[in-house]
Amino acid sequence: MSADREPLGLFPLHTVLVPGASIGLRVFERRYLDLIRDCGREGRGFGVCLIMEGQETGAPATAAAFGTEALIEDFGTGDDGLLLLRVRGARRFHAGRVRVRDNGLQVAEVEWCAPDPDDELRPEHSLLATLLEGLLEKAGGEHHLAPHARRDEAAWVGWRLAELLPLAPAQRQWLLQLDDPHRRLDHLLTLLH
After folding, report:
1. Which residues form the Lon N-terminal domain (predicted)?
2. What pTM value is reported for the model?
């Protein structure tokens, strides 16, 4: 992790956003509307962290220390007038000190985790590539259309499985916290057994 810390607004959720994954959000609380407005104005993302204690609405929740930067890809308004966002997971981060603004928004001092290395899948993880291939065939979607070479990348295979497998949020959070893509794949193998 880098020694430089920078402030990042947090959007705690009962889900884990992993790098490369896309999720939809409905935004209605003033603190998050302010956050989205600021992100749009500054051309930056916000942090999504798993809620460890508390709720998504109301009083600020206790969030996990590791999270993922969410970049806004699309937005609109739902039939109910609420702001709808489509965000994509980008960089992982570790949150240090967290301050709560007057409007209830949590802002953390974050250190960005090192990017995943461009390592190839190891032979002991070939079963995971086969499993991912089957999931992508059934699920279709954007990742099914990704270049076939991506299916040989250790980090990409690990993140797609973390996204697509029916894992508990705590299991996804554990995978998010691992820096080594091969350890991530080892852990996925243990979860499958």
Report:
1. 6-193
2. 0.90
